[in-house]
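Predict the 3D structure for this chain.
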Amino acid sequence: MIEIVEAQRHFQVGDQIVHALNGLSLEVAAGEYVSIMGPSGSGKSTLLNVIGLLDRLSAGTYRLRGEDVTRLPDPVLAALRRQTIGFVFQFFHLIPRLSAAENIELPLTLAGIPAEERSRRVEQVLTAYGLTDRARHRPDQLSGGQRQRVAIARATVTQPQVLLADEPTGNLDRHAGREVMELLEHLHRGGLTLLLVTHDPELAARANRRIYLVDGKIERDEHRRRV
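Done. Predicted structure below.
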């Protein structure tokens, strides 16, 4: 599903060059559940942004589903991102003036999905994620856990193959965080490839594979033993 070879990502910060990714190579098979950990500045979010086609490599190669996407033009990348990848963030990134249902519907509208199909898919995920009675509520009328469930519904209503979650429980209490993780893992068991960035070792340990980044490189890549 994902193949990254000798990835370099450099940023100019004042007079200095910051090496966010520094020769990183990674393969992720379809259907894997991978957690990504590392200290602040280790390149976790940069790696997720590159995988999610939100950022480009300074050097190296990225293949998604066997296709070299390293130098594809922006409109092609945007279409591929809409078709293939869903994103979940720590701070939800919901549009305040839109209801839960309208937030969920937005990526379908951008993808040109007909209105009748949009309504069917939105209703489907609202029911699946226990949000039917919150469909008309704006984000400020929802709890943190409900907002994150809306964000997950928005990320998956396009039926992506890969879900990228960047600290998805970092802004939630323990109970809401547990519910969000159970939902993400339910989606993974349904066949979704799940990549989770987290600072929490307990959450990271739930994944079948754990990657530790240091200074833009993979320091450890561990697979959980099957019992």
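The chain is about 35% helix and 30% strand.
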